[in-house]
Amino acid sequence: MSTTNSEEIEKDQPIIEGNETSKQKEVVEEAEKLSVEEQLKSDLEKEKDKYLRLFAEFENYKRRTAKERIELFTTANQEVLQSLLPVMDDFDRALVEINKSGDKDLVKGVELIHEKLKGTLTSKGLEVIEVGVGDTFDADIHEAITQIPAPSEDMKGKIIDQIEKGYKLGTKTIRFPKVVIGS
User: How far is CA 98 from CA 93, 95, 118, 166, in A?
Assistant: First the structure.
């Protein structure tokens, strides 16, 4: 019996050792799983960060190109509108001279054409910069052509006459009004 008992103990012992080894293997495998899982989580976070940065960069690119496109259209209009400003000036001078002639039909025809051109340019964003006699001269808004003696003390530093109209395209001044100021 003693042999049987010792054999049983010996048989039992490897089983216990085998159990401990399998437990150790489970712990090691679990640790490996955690480290793999943590590594995957870390990789996922890195990829998410890359994606968010790429997405933000693309959004900035879209905004920048849209802004550049709008500026391109504005500057393209600006060149065309600037080239038509002398035509508007000629129409204004022609209306003054035709009004002197007294031919009402001629005046009406030229006024219709003038208003149509002015309406078209206004629809493209062109605005006249309003300047009145007696307004205070501002070098940021007006272009002084000459100074003449002021007719009265209160007209010193004020606008006496407007030589040429000024125009804005949106918020940008494309031609400053040319004025005469009193000194």
Answer: 9, 5, 18, 23
Query: In this predicted structure, what is the pLDDT of residue 135?
Result: 87
pTM exceeding the 0.85 threshold for the entire prediction: no
CA distances from 183 to 78, 145, 158, 162, 176 (A): 34, 13, 8, 15, 20
Task: Compute the distance between CA of residue 44 and CA of residue 32 in angstroms, rounded to an integer.
Answer: 18
CB-side neighbour CA atoms (13 Å) of 131: 27
**Around 49, how many Cα atoms within 13 Å sit in the side-chain half-sphere?**
6
- Give the span between the Cα atoms of 144 and 77, in whole angstroms: 27
List 161's β-bridge partners, or say none: 180
Chain centroid to CA 44: 35
Helix pair 104-123, 2-101: axis angle to 10 deg: 170
With 90 as the cut, is the pLDDT of residue 8 above it?
no
Tens of pLDDT, residue by residue over 48-91, are 999 999 999 999 999 999 999 988 877 777 888 899 999 999 98
pLDDT at 178: 93
Contacts of 119-122 with C-beta under 8 Å, sequence gap 24+, read 121/81, 121/84, 121/88
Q: Which residue has the tokens 């216990």?
A: 16
